[in-house]
């Protein structure tokens, strides 16, 4: 299973590099199902892996200056705050078990929310008139809405340990008026900082990290990112998004059904 897990994170890096968003959402199920890491612990590892991968992916955008720093601050600061609130207060407050007529666990809550997040991402990628690709359809900059959305996205993705690029990019395009390439670069830098800060909070609260495991995972992930850059100019964006969207949908439905059957 370890070999399958390493292949999984390699594919995650590949997809993230090709699409600019969506690949990191594979990290949590890979850690839980292929590496057999407990769910809450896996969300911490996921934040570190996603944050580091996004940081590596953002380097090229920094060099090309395809990052909007002002928007990154307006959206990113409340997003980081949302992650810290989720990791420090909301996630620890969820009881290990609670009874709603049936006994539900904390793992069930996290994975069910995550499955709906995956299904949402899949629909956004499958949809033909994808707002991500329509850079002309943008609204005027609204810092207030952007700040609120940053807080919400940070809270949700911090709870499940996801990067959230599939939520951040359309927000930056539609509410901040950014062009697609700039939105991708800005999204990556936001994901990098909010994920690494979220993981640092977990470390501060006593999370025990297997750094050798993390080293292997990150090496395979970076290999995927590098290969993705090679294929980036050779593959059609729309076909990739549709294929990956259906893959996400299948995985999201699998996780949801699997969690329901465990009740």
Description:
- With 263 residues, this protein is mainly α.
- It has one domain.
- It is 76% helix and 2% strand.
- It has a two-stranded antiparallel sheet.
- A hairpin with a 3-residue loop joins strand 1 (97-99) and strand 2.
- Helix 6 runs antiparallel to helix 7.
Looking at this protein, list some descriptive labels.
263 residues; two-stranded antiparallel ribbon; 10 helices; 2 strands; globular
Give the averaged pLDDT, no decimals: 82
Tally of alpha and pi helices? 10
Rough outline: globular
Gyration radius, in Å: 17 Å
Count of discrete structural domains: 1
Sequence-ordered SSE layout with sheet pairings:
Layout: H1 2-19, H2 27-34, H3 39-64, H4 69-93, E1 97-99, E2 103-105, H5 106-126, H6 143-160, H7 165-175, H8 180-204, H9 211-231, H10 237-262
Antiparallel strand pairs: 1-2
Helix pairs in contact: 1-2, 1-9, 2-3, 3-8, 3-9, 4-6, 4-8, 5-10, 6-7, 7-8
Give a short summary of the structure.
The protein has helices at 2-19, 27-34, 39-64, 69-93, 106-126, 143-160, 165-175, 180-204, 211-231, 237-262, and strands spanning 97-99, 103-105. With 263 residues, the chain is an all-alpha fold.
